[in-house]
Amino acid sequence: MMPAARESLLDAAYTALACRPWSAVRMVDVAAAAGVSRQTLYNEFGGKEGLARALIRREADGYLAGVDRALTVHDDPRERLAAAAEWTAAEARRNALVRAVLTGCWSERLPAPALPPARSGSTVPAQRRADGPLPSPGDLVALVRDRAVAVLTGGAPGSADTAELARVCELVMRLALSCVAAPPAEGGVADLVRGALRRQSVP
User: Fold this and answer.
1) Pair 97, 56: CB distance under 8 Å
2) What's the pTM value of the predicted model, to 2 decimals?
């Protein structure tokens, strides 16, 4: 399948999920909205579970791409971390799938595939990717932490200072996630992060 058609199917699934619970989303409707046959949809994703996994992975990848962008917006390291935290909270508010992946809390409206990889006999590379493991909240914390450390150190080899920076970056990420669960009453996530970082050593 052409990548554009695959994206159209995922877009159609995302749009359908915004209108109704995942249990009520029908494969035939997703295929029709994307302008392809239902058989094409099944060939690409293997079934509704495969479509759900691919959709969740795409939204998680989009979130991580946003983190990468946020980490390069400012020159000051603290502002970079504040921007990444702000993006995390904002994207979790906007995108229910991102919020679920970040927190591990799946509402009844959402698909909730098991995190371990599902077995598949499909020979289609895209389907094998859809069958792979999904990130857990802990996985995403580690991914964001490591990306932040890499950006802030310029990819320099690890050291004692790098270990401390990793601790700070993880602290920022966990603070952002706490704001997803309980939004701050005043100010924003970035303000909380700036306050938390005032006494932290950030290169």
Assistant:
1) yes
2) 0.86
